[in-house]
Amino acid sequence: MDTGIVIVGASLAGAKAAEALRAEGYRGPVTLVGDEAERPYERPPLSKGYLLGKEEKEKVYVHPADWYEQHGVELRLGAAATAIDPAGHTVTLEGGERLPFSKLLLATGSAPRALPVPGGDGDFVRTLRRLGDSEQLRAAFRPGARVVVVGAGWIGLEAAAAARTAGAEVTVLEAAELPLLRVLGREAARVFADLHRAHGVDLRFGVKVEELRADGVRLGDGSTVPADVLLVGVGIAPNTALAENAGLTVDNGVRTDQHLATSHPDVFAAGDVANAFHPLFGKPIRVEHWANALNQPAVAAASMLGKAAVYDRVPYFFTDQYDLGMEYTGYAEPGGYDRVVFRGDVAGREFIAFWLSGGKVLAGMNVNVWDVTDPIRELVRSGRAVDAERLADPAVPLDEL
């Protein structure tokens, strides 16, 4: 008997999975469980348009408020799942209620990592992951406010840009010698360092944070950076506790196959929490970006309904900082490439960067250059070797390489 499909995680991935199930023609019960009081929303605006005050709150939600009732999706908000029993096909909620399921989707996402120093868990420390976080920061980012950001990753830099745009004084503290060094490598990372310095951000690299305080950050050299607002953005960790406690295979996220099925045939995973086998790369990869949460659920939904769906999309993400817009297509691991080729005006921040290995394009990043993601995606997917000189020449169309 079909006892329905339960989705744990009222996130973008969870909401899109419910949408996909109905689009696939599934008429059974669908229950979407989330521990937040807010209905499912998208996260990119939290560090971009909504944080900047350019987008209204209603714009961040995945669906209108009445969509769930209209589509027969039971939305259980403020209801944290505390356990799953794959063998017994139940999900236990806080308070003890048990929900039966025929199929289960884990869309539990990820959580900000805490800085392991004294004060790292202080209530004065801000993170940027939830809607409420964005609203608190938006209220705090004001002219003259001293904002200190620990961590020069994507979230840290986007928040720094929003704070500077609001007129705050911004200091970014980073242990590495450049921002985004692990993600982009030295050549492309310099672009973002130059960008933030040009907008008046005090970037400090190679620093060691010793202690977080309500009034600032104490560094390894004994100095203190004063702060009215202290934001920590040192990465996120997948929310795998439910899966681990249920005995599912967990390795840098919940391991799934290319159909997004976990080690139990009736349990699936999608979004940040899924470390999914990718046919194009021949190994599991976990990508912490919006495009996965947007696109994986359709495959998970089809797979739960017994269809032969495969998730093989080329990874994609984007950022907007000041007057710089960027899209990144592909997957280049640290140390997994042997060359970076630039096409265009790097100093003017209007270019494309390509990461190559053995002459093959692993990834491309277009900065203030538009309508090129399709040919970049084709270059990555093709796996063919390209001529680096032609690749660097803006006069050569990408689809002719």
TrEMBL record:
Domain FAD/NAD(P)-binding: 5-296
Origin superkingdom: Bacteria
Keywords for the protein's UniProt record, in alphabetical order: FAD, Flavoprotein, Oxidoreductase
Gene3D superfamilies, A to Z: 3.30.390.30, FAD/NAD(P)-binding domain
Keyword Flavoprotein applies: yes
Record-linked InterPro entries: FAD-oxidoreductase/Apoptosis, FAD/NAD-bd_sf, FAD/NAD-binding_dom, FAD/NAD-linked_Rdtase_dimer_sf, Reductase_C
Co-factor requirement: FAD
Pfam families named among the record's database cross-references: Pyr_redox_2, Reductase_C
Record-annotated Reductase C-terminal domain positions: 316-401
Protein name in the entry: FAD-dependent oxidoreductase
